[in-house]
Amino acid sequence: MTEMLRVIGADVERADARDKVTGRARYTVDEAMPGMLHAKVLRSPRAHARIVAIDASEAREMPGVHAVLTGPDLDDGTMMPVYGYFIKDQPIVATDKVRYEGDMIAAVAAVDEASANAALRKIRVEYEDLPSVPTIEAALADDAAELFETEPMGIVPPYGAGSAGRLRPRRNVCYEYCYRTGDPAAFEEADHVFEDTFRFSRMHHMHLEPFVCVAHWKDGGEIEVVTSSQNPFPLRKELCRIFKVPENRITVRVPYVGGGFGAKNNCKTEPIAVLLSRMTGRPVRFCLTMEENFLTNTQHAAILKVRTGVKADGTLIARQSEVLLDSGAYSDASPLVSEKAGYRMPGPYRYKHIDSVCQCVMTNTAPAGPYRGFGGTQATWASDSQVDMIARRLGIDPLEMRLKNMIDLGEPFVPGESGCDSDLAEGLDLVAREAGYFEPRKPNRGVGLGLGFKDGGGVNKPAQARVKVSTFGDIHLSCGTVEIGQGARTALAQVVAEILAAPLDRVAYLPLDTRYIPFDQGTNASSGISVMGQAVQRAAQSVRDQVLQMAAEELGTTPDALRLDNWTVIHGNEAKPLAPIIMGRYGGTGFEFTGEGFHKQPNDHHAPLETKSVFWEIGWAAVDLSVDRETGQIAIHKLVVSGDAGRAIHKLVCRGQDEGAALMGLGQALFERMIYDGTRLVNGEALTYRVPLAEDLPETFIAITQEQGHGPGPFGAKGMGEGAMLPIAPAIANAIEDAVGVRITELPITPERVLAALEAQADGTT
Questions:
Q1: Are residue 286 and residue 413 in the same domain, yes or no?
Q2: C-alpha pair distances (Å), 379 with each of 270, 410, 526, 735
Q3: Is the overall model pTM greater than 0.70, yes or no?
């Protein structure tokens, strides 16, 4: 089979390449509609305060202003004006109070942004200040002010064996996820029990295209939304619930998306734009600035406490974890992230007992939500760092410690789960050798390993696809996977082209419009090729089978005796064009063949998350670095990263995904953090938020795409794009300890923190 593949694995030109490099590509920021108004919002200067009064009368009289939206406008009985994932707690604009500096209080629709901004300055708001809780510790204090005195509407989804969830288990905690398996008495078997605490900083997604949408509430009650979104169908469902409009009256269109990394899920700009359009009867564009992006969605900061029992020979016995996620002012996707952070805390290692608890703590800061790695970044930072720390404490080589305890190919992650679909030892040996792990070290120079491991493909995630082929062999692929830069249009088209034995340029990936495209839950969890890919594969196979069946009947043979080749049918040594056969059967107007495909992992109550993981996304990393003892500066000489594509549909795209993920991991490890002075964000702009620059690239940067061939997707493919981010931070911390003997447990790993650790080492205080 491998030798017969013509399109799979080839570095063909990306379907979106020419549009993007020539500037022809259209994004939501380029969208315009006749008569379009522009929306801007007034944001709170207070972190936590009741809204005593709001006066927008003067703003409504400003030139060019068509509508002003404030909290009282939401109380007209025509809508349910709050949104969220599991918990509906975020209002379209603030009603009773504000909960962070940047909370949206009012919105204006005007002929242009300048007029809208001028009107915002005329809105008067009277506040009654309330005590604020800027940090996790402050929010959990017994006397802390509560962000929500009344419990918002929320649900706990069904879980499988060992898992459980709770709403509001204690003050300022919106959700708790727990996973337990085995016997707590296993700790008694341990020769050593190590307890360590890790801190993970808050980060911003830094997607270049801002949050933006254009909404039009048309006469007759139809709603059209063009938006930069990763999950158009769930977004449509949420808009349906908010505005009490049937889904068949709402259209969501998504052009190219200029980066998302998880942030562009669920409602962001859409509810305000839709409501202002209803108020004005005209299309409304709502586009945030980069500074507003920082106030809209972030990655969760976290405190992670890990207690691990181990034998003297390095055998891991039991692990107990407590994870506290900083959810910010609204729940957003925090409950979903808590599931993943808590579930992934064991890492890819065997334990007799696992006890993980993850709580979502509400603070008076910007909301936190999905972010590339989705809880795996936080979990891997703590989990894999501590495995390395334990090895060094016991005098065991960290590589040998991992090899001794990691799960094998085919071995379930935990009871009831699917088996690991990569050989972890093979990948670890690969990066270790490439980075010089087995070579002698120079002074102040070290090599560290990292191993990231996450369940992939999403939980209970369905995907549908449709493939249509015309009389003359032109192919249309319809599916809901959003092109966010990851190359989905190309890879999925390659799958169709391979199955139908057609040139890739014969496959058109249709624009994403919820009126016509089959359902998909969203472009997340690296599910494009692992879940949607299986739906696309089945749709293409259905078309192929229909065509071969038709041709067999016309030629007086069986489908098994035929094969396709560029819209001809091969029968023995004869090649017959299909178009004349089709027109001969169906008439001169011809015919179109349509195939439907569907995939969803079956429900399984034995699986902790109610379905077994579709696949396992793994990232291996090795870092060779040196530390300047005088300044704390870190110089990365070589960074080696690897992921397992199963089977690479497009090798260059796969490599690019690992490279991009690794550099995001580098930023997370060394630079990125949203800095708060109390409740005020002080570096919420591109110029002051530190990300890796060209000068920060490692001296040598190597990305190796493995193709171990065990994936569930088409031709053995697995999802990629998140795994290579996970191990970078622990690998760097592990290399620093290898180089100079100090351990950093808080991100980012700045020169100041390294220098402080070195000074403490010299003083004998560590």
A1: no
A2: 32, 23, 18, 19
A3: yes
